[in-house]
UniProtKB/TrEMBL annotation:
It comes from Schizaphis graminum (Green bug aphid). This is PiggyBac transposable element-derived protein 4. Residues 144-154 have a biased composition (Basic and acidic residues). Transmembrane segments: none annotated. Residues 117-165 are annotated as: Disordered. Residues 155-165 have a biased composition (Basic residues). Residues 2-84 form the PiggyBac transposable element-derived protein domain. InterPro entries: PGBD.
Amino acid sequence: KFKDKRDIFLLSTRHKLDIVDTGKQSKKKESILKPDVILFYNAGKAGIDLSDQLASYSSPVRKSIRWYHKVMTEILLNTSVINAQIMHNIKYNDSKMNVKQFCESLIDKMLDLRPTSRKLPQQMTMPNTPKSIGNQKRSAASKHKIEETEEKCPRNRKLRKRCSE
């Protein structure tokens, strides 16, 4: 049992009851001592806290869907986008995009359809359409752009955006 602001109970078979100096000082200029297990826990928790914080800013989850859809949307979409953004920011140090900018750039990349030089396989063609329409090449550059409108959302009074094709 360790008491910081509250009682903290941790059980560990990996750590002993060693009290370690954290290298920080309290307001009274006394060095702060904590058990080794708490320092180990806090060091591992930092990355998860950052991921949760970034994910909370722009959640793709809707209020109207069922709880299990919310869980899968949160796990598949939000967590994977946050992880991809963190890896992107590590790889390209010069570009520090926030989550919203990174999502918009991902969507732009996904909508940017490049021309294909090979024909689509037969199963990729749409049913009930002639083969000539199903195998047409895509346009060289997509015209999809996000455009702000003058309309405001009645719920939160923010300007609406829509695709201008």
